[in-house]
Model the fold of this input.
Amino acid sequence: MGCSSCGTSPGGCKNNGHCASGGCNRLNTFDWLSNIDMPDTYDFNIIEVSFKNGARKGFYYNPPYIRLLTGDMVVVEAKSGGFDVGRVSLSGELVKMQMKKKRVREDNFFQSVVRKANERDLEKLQEARDTERDTMIKSRVIARNLGLNMKIGDVEYQGDKRKVTVYYTADGRVDFRELIRHYAKEFKVKIEMRQIGARQESARIGGIGSCGRELCCSTWLSGFRSVSTAAARYQNIAINQSKLSGQCGRLKCCLNYELDTYLDALKDFPKRADRLETEVGVAYLVKTDIFKGLMYYAYRDQPFSKTHQLDKERVKEIQKLNKKGKKPPELIDYNRVEMEFARQAEEEETGFVDVTGQIELPPEEKKRRRGRDGKRRSSGSSRGKSSGRGKGSGKSDSKKKSPKPQQKSSSKSGQKPKSKQAPKSQQTSKPKSKSDNSSSGNQPKKKSDNKRRRNRNNRRKK
Done:
């Protein structure tokens, strides 16, 4: 995109048409040797200069007394006389490679660089660029009044404003002698008419493609190759003129980008496999999946026939049978498919494994504890009762709940008497809390109550 549309600040990026990212220069070439310190065996005195943000480029001779670097603005000699202002796009050894790519010989005659551009040269160049739009509108009006079958796409002024080049497109030759006289009378400069193609017009104007990016021809694509509908057929793309055409009205250049990959993949496919003869009928090719190596066939004579998926090897087998005058029973060889499934099942089948000591079963859930009476203990009700008991209530509880001795113990006074069981009704009358329960399930008694009960029993024995 140009500086006037990058939107970084009012009026462009204020970097004189050359952003650090290279977005303000169309058909830009990255000089990857400019910042590398490498000794040159000899100085190469030819540089590449671009004009109007890369819309036009040329090679110029650089005198040894002018030290130029990539990105410098220079004043060069124009071929038709006068001077032009451009930017150095390439310098050093990379220019030699570029000339070899474009088949330009080093012993040719080149226009020379005059000097570096000063502020006055840049101001004059900016005035010329501001005038180009009004000049293009007036030139279109004059060509329409003369009834010429041509379309003016762009206008470019020379750096010294002594010459203007009008780029136009037309289906055939146009007699523009009368048009040039009107232009010279209107603009009072030297006029040059140059016919270009639709692709070159789109490259000069620029735009956004259907992919959402800038046009390749206006950003990096410097050469145009012919594009035919055969490129779309090889890639199995529907021949839809509106979808295959670019903004220039011609077939899109990107149809050639992946064409070589598709041609390499199509080498292993059978030739002339549009129809296959079977005992069921004649099957016709519907579509081809190039990268998966699959071909889809269907019977036209049979109504509501389904599409059969075949691989390349199966199609070649059927072709060989048809050449011998034989027909297979069906398109798909079911015996072969069953064998393939059996082979896959054998590969996927796994034997039994001794998992003893390898798998640990989860621990069983512990059953809820039961009292001696066989009833489950509730934890919610016992919390409130057990929490209200204090030290003072221990004696009264022991008097009420302590049972009377039913038989006398024959032990002596020094021996401890055996503990006697309480009735079931008294055991289950008041359940204890969870904190008071022991691991064996019996209800624990306080030490003070046990001590009092022993003293009372000893006194009764005496």
Remarks:
- Residues 19 and 457 are 110 Å apart (CA to CA).
- The chain is about 30% helix and 15% strand.
- The first strand starts at residue 46 and ends at 51.
- The longest helix spans residues 119-145.
